# Entry
Amino acid sequence: MIRAALLSLLPLPALAVTLDMPANAALTAEDVSAADSYAMPIGSWTVEGLPTQTEAGAFVQQAWRIEATGLTTFQIIDPLEAQLIEAGFDVVFTCTDDVCGGFDFRFSTRVLPAPDMQVNFGDYRYLAARRTTDEDTELVSLLASRSSSAGFVQVTRVGGQAEVLATAAAPAVRAQGPVVTGDLAQELEQSGRFILSDLTFKTGSAQLGDASFDSLRTLAEYLIANPDRQVALVGHTDAVGSLDSNIALSKRRSGSVLERLVTTYNVPRRQLDAQGIGYLAPVATNVTEAGRDANRRVEVIITSTQ
# Structure
């Protein structure tokens, strides 16, 4: 059924292979570059890190939203995998959420930001493929997930010698950054994550301001109303400084948010955890001040419903 619905062409002129996407799929974000490198995951995340294969060349990363209810991640990836195999690619690795490494795999992987690409930590599927010729090596990875009303798939490709051209028919892409859309509770229930975008942090600082932040009040209301929910507050930084110092800083930031939720909003501490991953998951470029400001953020993710 899904394979029969693959009617519209996804033109990626930078690479030899093209993929047919479902007719009800819409391009929501696109990142193209004539020359970039991509470290494609080729194994599950472990405490020793994430095994990857890195190639450089023409780079294209796209996020697609498929308007359909009840669509599984297997149904999203299966027809795309068949097309890759037909085009001469070898599937080198495939996994699903927990087998991939759950939260750790997702945040060690290059992913376009929400809401353009949504990843449900409890329901996603990943595939890595490779095609090697005498002239070049092409890497393609697929990441599929879903919400209650739509499916999402990210296609990441690197390799090829042709000049990268943006898709002429592609819609305008929203500026990347920590965009908050919709209701916090709804976003958490559907996608498993929410960016607390009204929290601001200066470079090198972990201290929250004295203001009353709407996102914390709303999050507190959600957690108190759902005592079975447990969440992790995940701190992020810009790329100023070393990785070790930024990981420590990002964890202090998330810890500061945790303490505010407990002391000001009376959220039970057992429902909260504080973690930090430094600059490893940016939502914007670190080249500009605006981008660095967007990257200094705290996200909340659901870790348990028991």
